């Protein structure tokens, strides 16, 4: 597992290099893609090492159709995170904190307040 942890850190490092750059790869798209591929490679190695170390035991609860496993992110919003019933609608949403009610500040791109 120590080796898997090292691979996760390396994968995260390369991901952070791309996400921290302001131009999102505009100035050097080939280098950005190469960096993302390095991130993906190290991350995939970490997954493989974890699967090997646990004899596949970590995947028991996460196998199946991605649509049923992951909540519909595009339909989730900050407003819905203020609704306790919405947070009960999917297993993964239960990990999010209930946000306090607040008056809206923005309407699309227009500032209200």
Question: Would you spell out the secondary-structure blueprint of this structure?
Answer:
Layout (H helix, E strand, L loop, with lengths): L1 H19 L8 H26 L11 H4 L14 H4 L18 E2 L2 E2 L2
Antiparallel strand pairs: 1-2
Helix pairs in contact: 1-2
Structure notes:
There is one protein chain. The chain is mainly α and 113 residues long. It has two domains: 2-61, Butyryl-CoA Dehydrogenase, subunit A, domain 3 (Up-down Bundle), CATH 1.20.140; 66-101, no CATH class. 47% of the residues lie in helices and 4% in strands. The chain is built from four helices and two strands, in the order ααααββ. The protein has helices at residues 2-20, 29-54, 66-69, 84-87, and strands spanning 106-107, 110-111. Strands 1-2 form a two-stranded antiparallel sheet. Helix 1 (2-20) packs antiparallel against helix 2 (29-54). The longest helix is centred in the middle third of the chain and has 26 residues, at 29-54. The radius of gyration is 19 Å and the shape is flat. The model has no long low-confidence stretch (mean pLDDT 83).
Percentage of helical residues? 40-55%
Q: In this structure, how is the largest beta sheet organized?
A: 2 strands, antiparallel
CATH class of the largest domain: Mainly Alpha
Which H/E pattern describes the elements? HHHHEE
The spatial strand order of the largest sheet comes to 1-2
From the structure provided, what is the oligomeric state, counting identical versus distinct chains? single chain
Structural class: mainly alpha
Task: Determine Rg (CA atoms, Å).
Answer: 19 Å
Shape from CA axes?
Answer: flat
Secondary-structure arrangement, i.e. CATH architecture of the largest domain: Up-down Bundle
Number of strands: 2
What is the number of helical segments per DSSP (H or I, 4+ residues)? 4
Mean pLDDT: 83
- Could you say how many structural domains there are in total? 2
The share of residues in extended strands comes to under 5%
CATH topology of the largest domain: Butyryl-CoA Dehydrogenase, subunit A, domain 3
